[in-house]
Amino acid sequence: MNTHNRFLAVLGTFLFTISMSAPALSDSAYIDVSGQGELDVYPDFLTLSVELSATEKDVVRAKNKVDDAFAQLSKVAEEHGIAEDDIESVRISNYPQWEYQGNGKRELIGHRVIRPVTITLRTLDKYGPFLEEVLIDERYRIQNTSLGFDKPAEHESKARRLALLDAKAKAEEMAATLGQKVTGVLWIQEQAAHFPQPVMMMESAPMMRSAKADSGSGMKIQEQTISQQVQVRFEMEED
């Protein structure tokens, strides 16, 4: 096969691929419309990531301090109605602490033991005092907080339905303005759903420790907006 024929073969394959992937064009009149659906949902739970750490010359002493901090944290959580199954801590790490000398040598000066803990809070309006106790205690360091939903797929489905209804209403309005009516759907394309990464705002730990904030003032949890977009091609005809 010469160069010209190879070029035509490749071009034909390329055009065939485009025709297979693009939405088929209709012989009838149509209109392309985008739809937007948004749903405001209050989170179902909060995940709190806390780091417990201690640095001592003796690794056993450092670990014991971390274990004591975990025991106290578990006790406080129990006092605030947090179930044992909602407290997870399966890993503990040790990091030797070295001091480098001027002669290029190093000297072991201690051990830093770290134990991460994950706590799930399921009744959000009741845990202000618990969060404040965690913030006030200098043995605990909050690494991350995130909010979540028990049924994210259900919320996404509701937002998608709102987006489709929005697209339908737009198409009917535009078609009627032009003396047309919508008679069917030729194709639908769903855009990626926007599920927010929920954020919980709290006062800073130093501020909480110094001000001894009133109970509940550290939590500011708001509804989260879940959005969905669709593209719809509607078939039209004269009204």
TrEMBL record:
On the tree of life, the source organism's domain of life is Bacteria
Keyword DNA-binding attributed? no
InterPro entries annotated for this entry? 26kDa_periplasmic_antigen (IPR052022), SIMPL/DUF541 (IPR007497)
Keywords on this record?
Answer: Signal
Q: Which Gene3D superfamilies match?
A: Protein of unknown function (DUF541), domain 1, Protein of unknown function (DUF541), domain 2
Biological process annotations from GO? DNA damage response
Q: Extract the signal peptide range.
A: 1-24
Give the protein name, as stated in the record: Oxidative stress defense protein
Q: Which organism is it from?
A: Thalassolituus maritimus
